[in-house]
Every structure is written in C-alpha cells, then in structure tokens.
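Entry, Tuesday afternoon. Goal for today is a structural model of the target with adenosine-5'-triphosphate bound, before we commit to ordering more compound. Inputs were pasted exactly as handed over by J.K., no edits. I checked the ligand SMILES twice against the vendor sheet because last time a stereocentre got dropped in transcription.
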Amino acid sequence: MTTLFPDDNFVLHTDAYQLTMMQTYFQKGIHNRHAVFEMYFRSLPFKNGYAIFAGLERVLDFLKDLHFSASDIAYMRENPMFDDDFVDYLEQWRFKATVRAPREGEVVFNNEPILQVEGSIFDAQLIETPLLNMINYQTLIATKASRMRAVVGNQGLLEFGTRRAQEMDAALWGTRAAFIGGFNATSNVRAGKRFGIPISGTHAHALVQIYRNDYDAFKAYAETHRDAVFLVDTYDTLRSGVPSAIRVAKEFGNRINFLGVRIDSGDMAYLSKGVRKMLDEAGFPDAKIYASNDLDEETIASLKLQGAKIDVWGVGTKLITAFDQPALGAVYKVVSVENEFGEMVDTIKISGSAAKISNPGKKQVWRITRQSDGKSQGDYIALWDEKPDQADSLFMFNPAYPYLNKTIVDFNARPILEEMVVDGQVIYQSPSVQEIQEYSAERLDNLWSEYRRGLNPQEYPVDLSQKAWDHKMNLIKDVRHYVDEVAKDFENRQ
Ligand SMILES: Nc1ncnc2c1ncn2[C@@H]1O[C@H](COP(=O)(O)OP(=O)(O)OP(=O)(O)O)[C@@H](O)[C@H]1O
Ligand SMILES: O=P(O)(O)OC[C@H]1O[C@H](OP(=O)(O)OP(=O)(O)O)[C@H](O)[C@@H]1O
Ligand SMILES: O=C(O)c1cccnc1
C-alpha cells in the first residue's frame, strides 16, 4: 500500500488539544505526575439492557511500541503550535502507563468504568482520543450484533456490511465486533484472513444479469463451485428464480452441495413461505432460505412473527453503521491526580445535570453474582482500596435513587477491570475471536433475561459503594466551597 510516510503510525491519531495540553504539562514540569483516567458511557445504546465490550485487541496493538516516528517529529517541528523542546522530548518518549479493562466480549453497563489508564498525566492524556475512537465504535457494533443474535436464536447470522460501512477500518473492525457479538461469519475476506472469522458468500444480482437469465447463471455457478446458494430475486423469485435453482440443483445432484437460495427483495414473509413450499415439494427440504435487504433486529423479529421461513439472515447496513444510534458516547475523565506534594488527589467534574457529575477516585467494578447459581445481582463500583470480595454482606444502592437499595449475602464479587498493560508492556494475550465470542455468550447467560430482552429491558443495577458515594458528596461540597470563594473574590475585585 502506498503511504505518504513509510514510518507512519497511529500516534498522531489524536486531537490536537491533547498535544497542546501535553505541551503545557511539559513546560510546567508536571508531565510526569501520576494520574488515573477512566472511560465510561452514560447511557446504553439502542435502549438495550447491556453492552458488549469490544475493541481491546486493537487498543493493545496500538499501545505496543507507541512512539513518535521521524516523520511525526518532522511534522510537529514544522507546526508553530509546538515548541522545539517539547518536540525533542516527544522524540525519545515511550508509553509507560498501565491499562486495565474488561476482557473483550465482557458484558458492561452505563456509568461504570470500562477502561482505566494509570500513569503519567502525559501518557494518559495522549491516548484519550484513539482509545475512545476504538472502544466507542467496536462496543457499539458488538452490542448491535448481540441484539440481532438474541432475535435470531440459533439460526445463521451473516455479516454483509463492508460495502456500506463508514470506510475500510470500520468494515474490518466492525466485522470483528459483529463476530464477538454473535455473528457466525462475514462476507469480508480480509477480516477472515486477519481474524480467523469464517467467511461466507452467495452471489450478487450481477451474475444473473450478466448471463441474462437465472438458469444459465446458476448453472455456470454450479459448474465452478461445490457449495451453492442461488440468488433468486433478480427477475421474479417464485416464477423464474426458484424454478431455475431447483432445475440446476436436480441436474447437478451430488456434484454440488445445494445449500439453498437467497431472497433480497419483496415481501420476505410471503416469498419465503412460497419458496419453502417449492423447495420441499421438489425434494430439497434441507435447502436453506437466506434473506437479506436492509434487515435489522426489528425487521427480523417481525418476519419471524409473520412465520417467515427464513433460516439464515444476512445483515449489512443497519449493523455496520449502527444505523439507529451511530455513537456510543463513551467519555474519558481524570479521576485522580498527583499534587505538588506527591499525594494523589481525587478530582470531580461538576455538571448541572446530576447524571453528568463524574465519580471521583480510582475505582474497580465488581460483578456481584449469586453464589448458588452465578446469576447477576448487579455491579458494585468501589474505591480501589475496598475489598467487597472479602465482605460477608454488601449494601448496594442506586446512586441516582439511594432509596433503591438492598443488602446481599452469599454472593461472589469478581473484579471486571483486569491489567492488560503494565508500565507500558502489554501483558495480555488476546484470545481468538471464537474464544471471545464464547466468553461473551457465557457472560450474557449469567444475566437474567429481564436485562437481556431487546425491548424495554429492566435496568441492571450499577451501584456505588457507600465509601465511593460519601467521597463523591464530600468532593461536591469542596467544589461548591471553591466556587463560592472564587465568586466572592470576583465580586470584591469589581
Ligand atoms: N414481510 C415483511 N415484513 C416486514 N418487513 C419486511 C417484510 N418483507 C421485507 N421487509 C423489509 O422491508 C423493507 C423493504 O424495502 P424496499 O422497499 O427497499 O425493498 P424492495 O423494494 O422489496 O427491494 P429493492 O428495492 O431492494 O429491490 C426492507 O427493509 C425489508 O427487509
Ligand atoms: O441490505 P444490507 O443489510 O445492507 O445488506 C447488504 C446488501 O448488499 C447487497 O445488495 P447490493 O444491492 O449492494 O448488491 P446486489 O447487487 O448483490 O444486490 C445484498 O444483496 C444486500 O441487500
Ligand atoms: O454473499 C452475499 O450474499 C453478500 C455479500 C455482501 C453483501 N451482500 C450479500
């Protein structure tokens, strides 16, 4: 591939303001102070009851050997925005922070840390933008895919989105996220090669149009392939497409593996029933009916309700673009920072809307499950030094509505954030996509079905520990006091 710079890499894939802030930290000599940043999203996408965490493998790839290349340095030197000594520093800089995250495929929720970066202010600040870029998109797509998997049950689910994706990166990584969320295969051959995702494909209308009739096209395909799925809707599904598919399947017998037919337009409930009848009567009860055409979980559910005889679902646009909600909206906030005396001070971001006030302090997310059957009880966000896994009982309350609370006993507490990168070294070996998909399905199984249903799911409890809550209230008080002082001072100066 031709690139403008042979040593190009992703380190400048960040917002300019990260670099301008870094220059300030550097010039003021605070760039090596310790800080903790956490990533979270405020509301679940698609009104779903959970999200599937994805994007970690690419984040780890990105962090490996992260550095400013010669052409990056040359580019920055030319830009008056950056000082020479700052750029000199970048030339020898290497990423040394620690990153904690859930395993890929983990079930995660809103308002809890889904990634934590601990290290120098400098390192943590630089990677905000790319990390959000990767996690926001891939988590969104894995979640959308999971919603589709929930609707189709055990039927086949194929990813067809590459042509409609927001460019090549989104197609590739979106496909991987879709697989994590439960898709069986992809039409994207590069994703197959790169990630080991099974590839699958039928054929396009072009084949039929080029031969100008269904029979000749299917026959040519059968002569050149063992596995065959014929696309039957180019001219008329029931009157020319399916009759031609049946004719070819009969003529070729065991010489081909007649997998079925694909419908890509029209009323797919009506058509699939007609197609099923014709295939059965022709002696092909095992031939499957594939369907595609702007499908999403809602259309699929409706088609199933109508008794459509569809066995395999091909989904493109609405999956790969997360059509009904194109952004997850995860944010990345500093929660603790070292002061001039070398002490860690927790920080808070205040907002007019209570939901947007950040949770200060370095935290761990504990997944609380029932000891008896492993079923989910909720997530418990605690300050880092708390040990809920060693407690006999746990008081859990909803931070937005503290009167919603419960005390639980006989529980297991599992920390969700695990060390993936330590002092700049990636220590986590990503499992295969198949293993990630299985892990995700197992995690989802532990969730009560009330949280899993696609429509109006129950809200999963994401609770704060008493200590984390008290800490937040105290910091809010401190900030109020600070704001009053500044306002008073300003008045006095007028
Ligand atoms: N029985 C059905 N119930 C609900 N939705 C359906 C049914 N059959 C098809 N659909 C959906 O309705 C939409 C039909 O879209 P559209 O009108 O663009 O398709 P078409 O005209 O049949 O085909 P095309 O224009 O692609 O040749 C698609 O999203 C399809 O998935
Ligand atoms: O509808 P989506 O969910 O986005 O799935 C992908 C679509 O891409 C193909 O159509 P296209 O018209 O691009 O090509 P074709 O000539 O093969 O039909 C395929 O037939 C699907 O309809
Ligand atoms: O293989 C298919 O049927 C396919 C691939 C990409 C897009 N639409 C359909």
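The chain has two domains: 16-142+326-364+377-384+414-478, 152-321.
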